Amino acid sequence: MFDKEKVGYSFPAFMIMIERGKIHELALAIGDENPIYHDLEAAKAAGYDDLPLPPTAPTIFTFWGNTQLWEQLSSVGINVARVLHGEEEYEYVAPIAANDTLTGVTTIVDGKTRRTREGSMDILTTETRYTNQHQQHVLSAKTMFIVRE
């Protein structure tokens, strides 16, 4: 059963450097041939300072940036071996491009326990607020985890 006193708890900050090559690789991996993700001149011609971040890129920030997330969730009593990914939501506040350095802080913003036929499940929502190297808020990412009991 989720400990509701953990709502509002924030984990330590983490950083991620947005690399031009990684933007290119991600666009290749998802089959996006838009030249703004592959060619600096095309990105600049479209009005960007550098290669822009593809819209769903924050999904990978957990793996490239916040490599301690699973240990952090365990530290507040979440059984990470029983976690299912529920949903992901992004709110872009300002542009993010290659050579930006983002700092993310993940906070537990909601948690509840639901009864099921087999027992119960916990539904946990985290929000990661990202700021860039200028301390400008650029992105908020919400993630819902379902913890099967």
From TrEMBL:
Domain FAS1-like dehydratase: 7-139
InterPro entries for the chain: FAS1-like_DH_region, HadA-like, HotDog_dom_sf
CDD domains named among the record's database cross-references: R_hydratase_like (cd03441)
Source organism, top-level taxon: Bacteria
Name assigned to this protein: FAS1-like dehydratase domain-containing protein
Species this chain originates from: Dictyobacter halimunensis
